[in-house]
Amino acid sequence: YAYGRGVAQGRNKAVEYFQKAAEQGHAQAQFVLGFCYEKGHGVAQDFNDAVKYYHKAAEQGHAQAQNNLGLCYQYGRGVAKILVKAAKHYQKAADQGNAQAQCNLGLCYQYGRGVAKNLVKAAEYYQKAAEQGYAQAQFNLGLCYELGKGVKEDLDEAFKYYQLAVNQGCPIAKERLRRFEPMPFEGNNLP
Is 119:144 a contact under the CB 8 Å cutoff? Predict the structure, then answer.
């Protein structure tokens, strides 16, 4: 019902089935139901219910639910804004290889959100996510290399990671790459 495969698409009907599966302890259904409540897909938007279902799925080790629960704690959606809890949930998901959580944890370390500021760890988590093709992490890692934050400054590496992010349609990486373009000569003033 969620995608209309073989039946007429109906978000409300999909939510009904996700609810039944969630009540039986199905972690993926709990995650999807949390997402439905967070976004208001097929149900009224309710961050409290989103957190409830993300928490159930996260307790079962669902990495994306752990990441999304971290986002809820980071921004105070359905729960009090507690950056330490956000970082802990990102860590659990990052340890399972979730690229989005690795990038989010990198941001936590970069800015000292819920953890002690540590630029080396930030770059390490960006690297992990970038290796999985996560565009935002590729951009962030490029910035680390360009500015020498947490890694040795290396403009070739910066260019490489910006280009990877651009290849995935990351507009801020495209802007950053323009810094690497040669400056055109004005008029006939050649050296």
Answer: yes
Q: What is the reported pTM?
A: 0.86
**Cβ–Cβ under 8 Å, residues 89 and 67:** yes
What is the rounded CA–CA span in Å between residue 27 and residue 45? 20
Q: Which residue has the higher pLDDT, 148 or 183?
A: 148
Q: Is 80 left (phi over 0), alpha (psi -120 to 50) or beta?
A: beta
Is the pLDDT at 191 greater than 90? The verdict is no
8-42 core/surface letters (b: 16 or more CB in 10 A; e: else): eeebeebbeebbeebeeebbebbbbbbbbbbeebb
CA 150 to chain centre: 20
Q: Which residue in 17, 15, 8, 10 sits closest to 35, CA to CA? A: 15
